[in-house]
Amino acid sequence: QELAGKDVASVRDAVSFIYGSSFLADDITALGKLYTLADEWQIDALATATLVQIESTQSQASALSLLSGPTTLPDQLARSAFAALGSDIPSNLPEVCIAKILNASAHSNELVPLKLYEAARDQLESAIIANV
User: Fold this and answer.
1) DSSP symbol at 6
2) Is residue 5 very low, low, confident or very high in pLDDT (cuts 50, 70, 90)?
3) For the chain, which terminus, N or C, has the lower number of CB atoms within 10 Å?
């Protein structure tokens, strides 16, 4: 019952890691799902290994991909994605990213860099004004 709704590839990778210290996930979406599963199941070594893999290959595009996903990211993964956006924040963040940035900021002031929060807030305000 605890496996219901879990990504099969992530579960397979988690089991593979537990018994063999390796996993197959290599694209940002699969790594994000695997990190989320490791965080949920409290498999700290897998979470660490997955986060290292994510951070070693993460770009602004991959961060936007993670943030555009349908699920809420664990804090450490969100922090990594926010940091990967860097100081050159896109002027047209997807709405789902804006929502996640603002929600994360409301959850914790330390999670979202101030410049990113301000950019998301400004883009939301501009969208509201444009639709009024």
Assistant:
1) -
2) low
3) N
End-to-end CA distance of the chain: 47
The answer to whether residues 46 and 23 touch, using CB atoms and an 8 Å cutoff, is: yes
Q: Residues with Cβ < 8 Å from 109, sequence gap 6 or more?
A: none
Two tokens, residue 129:
């004004």
Select from 43, 109, 111 the least CA-distant residue to 72. Answer: 111
Q: Which helix (H) or strand (E) holds 98?
A: helix 95-107
Kindly report the number of other CB atoms within 10 A of residue 81's CB atom: 28
**Distance between CA atoms of residues 103 and 29, nearest Å:** 21
**Per-residue confidence band for 1, with pLDDT thresholds at 50, 70 and 90:** very low
Q: Which of 125, 75, 70 is nearest to 104 (CA)?
A: 75
d(CA 115, CA 38): 30
Q: CB burial class (10 A; 0-12, 13-18, 19+) of residue 41?
A: middle
